[in-house]
Fold these 4 entries.
Entry 1:
Amino acid sequence: MNSSKASIAIGISQIFPCSYLDGQQEQLLVIQEDTLDPILFERLLAVGFRRSGGSIYKPRCPRCSACQPIRVPAHEFVPSKRQKRTLAKNQDLTWRITSEQTAEQYALYEHYIRERHFDGPMFPPSEDQYNHFLFCHWLPPTFIEVYNDDKLLAVAVTDTLPNSLSAIYSYFDPDEEQRSLGALLILIQCRLAKLMDKEFVYLGYQIDENRKMSYKRLYRPYQILTPTGWEYSQVC
């Protein structure tokens, strides 16, 4: 075997307790590859896969189908009245995009996990966990940073692909909860995708049964991946 060739591994994970729904069991279809073309990765996104570190995964749970891939058509997105209020109350903030990983970003992530997710699988936070979760060598992420003057308030870690943006993870200053910074980051991603002439913003999995994971339906219109393909929501 030629060791210089890229290797690929495809497999099914062990069944383990679900991180999102109590009493459910979780199992993943996992693809691990030394290198992956962004065009191919975008095709995998379009059939329901996501990225965690350098691994590509898709739920393959034995008795549950609660995780629904969801995406927003960037050029069709229209902020709701509530989202317009979120934008208005954060007009004093500025944002920028960068490819640079900084200690300031990690410090904010650590504060966020300790305050908001101390009862979850990402606690306690560590730099090794942070790096393993967010980064892969074949697709360096984009960081969308939100500032109040010189203070970093929020970060959206985002994959920039030929035809889309894919939201990997967002975190923010838990002491600024009244600003709705999580919502603001999604609104910025939708705005950025439109400015960059991208077709979609992939938001990951919509899980209606989990209160913390049910917010993605607020960004309309959206599309849900069904067994027959992507379908538009019923917009109210």
Entry 2:
Amino acid sequence: MKAHTYETQSTITPEKALEFLQEGNQRFVNNLKANRDLLEQVNATREGQWPFAVVLSCIDSRTSAELIFDQGLGDIFSIRIAGNFVNQDILGSMEFGCNVAGSKLIVVLGHTKCGALKGSLDAAQIEGLGMDNLNHLINHFTPIINEVIEENEERSSKNSSLLERLNQQNVKNAIEDIRKQSSTLRNLENEGKIKIVGANYDVETGAVSWLL
């Protein structure tokens, strides 16, 4: 499988880009990796890159987007931050990926058993460790916890139902933030030039489910 070129990228629709990732995850789950010469792709992309998708995922070591979607060099822009949320710098990266470099799809990829979200549920314990910047990060999810937690429900990472509801809502909120905070990406989506979708990776099975 060869690296994408300007010509191949320009023919990809947002729907086809999504299909590429869906098919790639099916190959990953079935252990049927596409045949790629990565050194050939290094050579093919030395003058430029034409990725067809931007994937925002967690830094979790189990969630490498290139691997779980079975993609090669130059196929996707991979943005990673603990808890897969957006900020201004990440939005700028997405704007570059889509409006400058021509990507057709944005995926916000959450995952089961997310450590960042577990930390937000156990914030009192994490804050006791005295890591100022980590405390700042996990407090980002407090408003989302308040959205999904039920009255008298246990706020704990051991509460698997709450953790998964938080994971799903966090992905949905990130998509809303992209649309609200970036007029560039919102306009591209409204014009049908890109799609913005959510997804969830299961760390036990390797399968990606889609929030379309």
Entry 3:
Amino acid sequence: MAPTGTGTPAVRRVRVDPAGFPFATAFELPAAGLPRLTPEEWVRASYEDVPVALRELIRTGWAGVLGLRLGPRASPRHVVGWRRVEAGPRRIVLEARAPSLTLRNVVTLDDTRLLWATYARYERPAGRALWSLAAPVHHLAVPVLLTRAVRRMG
């Protein structure tokens, strides 16, 4: 994992066990030199600590394009509108559902890396089509948002 030229470690795409989901993708950052944040703080730094226009664009993609039913942003049971399934000092599992698909983001920290994995389950055939359109955007957005969070929090 080469630095990005600014001292920020590079986010790289890695393989992850699909854990029973038809689609799984993941990105990792080396833990060395990262700010000491919990997984929830990483999610919030990546999605909330961004310009308002970008935050609204992301939320519009989730709700308007994918049809995800997001919870209230201020709810203690939700993080950026995603339902908190599990939360701890080393791992958070967030889920959002739409009629045609279920998405799950799992952010895990260990001594060597931060791993952000996304899983998709297609509830209807349209879910596969929607996610096939959204996945390329996701694969561009997550590394950019994580890199930005590292720079801002570091």
Entry 4:
Amino acid sequence: MQQESIWDADTAQRYDTPGTGMFAPEVLGPAVDRLAQLAGGGKALEFAIGTGRVAVPLAGRGVSVTGIELSLPMVEQLRTKADEATIPVIVGDMATTIAPGEYAVVYLVYNTISNLLTQDEQVQCFHNAARHLAPGGRFVIELWVPELRKLPPGQTATVWQCEPGYIGLDTYDVLHQHVVSHHFRFDETQQARLFRSPHRYVWPAELDLMAQLAGFELETRHADWSGAEFAAESRSHVSVYRIPPAG
């Protein structure tokens, strides 16, 4: 599964779910609040900006936002909400593509760094963030914690969400640190719709080492955008890395 084929026109058309899921106010609001605070009046760069779920409300808060995005259909969907002058987007991959200018904050939300399927690409992504930041600038990553403790011997899949009309499960390749997320959506008919996406899962400690290789220091890590304590049972984290200030 290539990323270009996954994030196609059909996916882009179905991606936005206003008011629910990842677009729910209680999910989106704290993320926008925190990123606006971290930008501190400076410019923000979003890697894998997608359809603008975070960028559009962040720009609405007065933050100057630029994006990098691999999928043209996702950018086209974004353009139904904001024009190029409001939110400029450079088409390309987040590991190597350069956006013009210098930024106060670069951010990656909703597990997107795991869409890079090799450790080398993920390390490159940190270096790419660093080259866009001024001294003292921050790189923010939202990422889930791999749930390998749920895998008994010989089992390769976990169900991570089950609710009316939806089942989400992950299949793991622990040898190569890969996981495929399967999203099944269905109704009262006999038909179901499947969306799959491959990922390379990353432990927080490995992420911290990637950050060090690119010249970052870990500034904060919380369990969510609202600042809840990150603990052993946390299923995700928001990690803020900082380029040390000059001097």
